[in-house]
Specification:
The complex is a heterodimer.
Chain A lengths: L1 H9 L9 H12 L4 H9 L3 H50 L3 H24 L4 E3 H9 L9 E4 L4 E3 H20 L9 E9 L4 E9 L12 H13 L3 E7 L2 E9 L2 H13 L10
Parallel strand pairs in A: 2-4
Antiparallel strand pairs in A: 1-3, 4-5, 5-7, 6-7
Helix pairs in contact in A: 2-4, 3-4, 4-5, 5-6, 5-7, 6-7, 7-8
Chain B lengths: L8 E5 L3 H13 L3 E6 L2 H10 L4 E5 L1 E2 L2 E2 L1 H10 L3 E5 L15 E3 L4 H15 L1
Parallel strand pairs in B: 1-2, 1-3, 3-6, 6-7
Antiparallel strand pairs in B: 4-5
Helix pairs in contact in B: 2-3
Classes of the chains: A alpha+beta, B alpha/beta.
Amino acid sequence: MTEELQPYRREAPYRRGRSAAARERDLVERLRGLEHRNLQLAAERDNAWGRVRALEDAFRVRDKRIEQAEFLFKEAAHRIQNTFAAVQGMAERTARSAPSTNEFMRAFRPRLIALARAHEILASERWAGARLSRLVRMAVEPYLTDPDQLVWQDDDVMLPGRSATPLFMALHELATNAAKYGALSVPTGRVRIEASVDPEAGTVRVVWQESGGPAVASGVHEGFGLTVIRRGITHELGGVTDIRFEPTGVHAILTVPLPGRMVRTLLGERTAGDATMGSTGS
Amino acid sequence: MTEVSVALRILVVEDNFLAAEAASLLLEDLGHEVVGPVPSIAEALARVEQNPIDLALLDVDVRGQVVTPVAERLRELGCPVIFVTAFTADALPPCCRDAPVLSKPFEEWNLRKALRSALMKDL
């Protein structure tokens, strides 16, 4: 770390009338270790000012990166403050229906942890988005007694950053509800989740279907949990929810808008048979 | 300064639903009536035309857009506003730089103070 910083400390300020060779040396020094490809390019040029131009291009690339980093920093600052407010909202709402502090913590703690998991997924993608399959796995797997209990099928959807948290919280609420009262409360129960993109509507549709669990009574167990699912999807994402407590188990359809570019990426990939998106997964 | 003791109809514009819950519950605790909360500029503008409101709590950044159109319309209507921001370096709508600003998250005391300040300016 210290070694990497050394060249910056030692660099000489530019002076008017210095030779191209001297300036080139400065620039090479400053870029060393940061821009291998551009340094190579510069080395291939056979005149000094040509090399200086290549190096200055390299600096422009670096400046652009700094700009992007600043954007990410602002984005992260917003997210952090909004997350504090969201945690407050969760606490305020949970506290108002909790009969005791123990009950409050039992209801609040898993939601706080779910929020943290959603952020972990987003942070690993540098806030740019989240793979739906990863949200599903992270939300549901902790509640499975047997991996076969989850049947999962999707179009390998990459979600925009802002959709990840509300969708993860919704999946988390469905999973905890299933573990407490539904299909995941018995070893024979199954949860089938299917996700598909509708390119015409520009939406992704997530269908959650439980089977093999005990008969479910209509929404009696979940007050705020149901609100988290519904309001997260509708209020925050402008999506649509359809949640039914059927005798065979919970049947929920969450429809979330997908920005045009994400639909195009997905379709482009499918037609080109290109699997590059898979490599950005984790 | 006098305490705001009348029940007000307050529009809440906030796209994060849990943050909106927090704001709404605090306002209700103070005895006010919450209009919304609404998550977008379009819905906020529609609400403003539908029902008379006494005051608005506006998140500065709503779904990636600055809440300026809503703030400007409310100024035209003579309705006081309080801005809520997740990042204090954010630019506020130029029409209403004198409006009180709350940083997220906020509590009852901050809210009371902002309400007083918004209404005093209005009078």
